[in-house]
Amino acid sequence: MGILEEAFEENVLTTRVDWLLNWAKLNSIWPMTFGLACCAIEMMAVGAAHHDIDRFGAGAFRATPRQADLMIVAGTVNFKMGERVKRLYEQMPSPKYVIAMGACATGGGPYFKYGYTVMKGVDRIIPVDVYIAGCPPRPEALLEGLMTLQDKIRRTPVIRKPARLQPADLA
Amino acid sequence: MDFQAIADHLSVAKVPGLLSVELPRSPDKKIKDKGRSGLPYVCLDPSCIVEFLMFCRDDEALGFEVLVDLTASDPSSDDENLWILVQLLSVRHRHRLGIKCILPKSALSMPSSTKVYRAAQWHERECMEMYGVTFEDHPDPRNMLLPDDWVGYPMRKDYVFPKEYHGISCE
Questions:
Q1: Among A11, A117, B101, B106, whose Cα sits 20 to 30 Å from the Cα of A71?
Q2: Interface ipTM above 0.85
């Protein structure tokens, strides 16, 4: 890493704090145990041995929102459930991420026209980071969505950039 | 017993409320009429349903232990009647009976069957929220599927879809 490379003895690595924190964060995205419809079956398949979401450090499905970083909205959200989904999202500690999995969570899906109680997309109540298309999406698609989220976390600055020099500072 | 024997038994016993016995029409091949398919049923006066079901349950020869289904049906938005459809089953005697009550949409109210068959509770609650039928003396007349503050009866043919719910647009 730049001028500090090999400035110390062996076995000492130098890096940026941003990189280190993001590396830790994106390799331990713990999702919430939470499924609403048939997409949840695919989510379970991703958790099982064949696809194994644990390769990405996201295999620890937490049974409480207070220990979870990621909410995979896997299935149809109706208005009655939407209130609960919103409350669960609010109970999650920051930084928190949401994946809208499948057509229903993205935009109502097959219930768009005649589903009188179906919410036309979960992004009407909570902010969504990654949308996954499909009805339901293949397990590979969910893994792709997870990797997209990891890319997003990788690009996020953790330590604030120093404030820009203002004319008032010179006086 | 076959259906005809059940109907005869009911007529001989002079059960209150029995209006008519409806058999499936035999198909007329000349005019390509497929006939009314499905199960035969008896028409019933809705105000006598408790006595009728009590008789069906307690009579030795009939012995209907199970209430399989209780639901409603809206034949058309022009029709001024709503149908309440009941299915009874006897496991001992291996026969079943269809019952149809015709209720005018202007006065959607009938006695609750829950004192005879406790299984009717959830069926009646669903009828109440979906069709707007009132079951008198129902022990727990809350909504079962819809939110408590839902407006309208979604399974009616003249149902108008909501524009928004709690500020969330349904468009």
A1: A117
A2: no
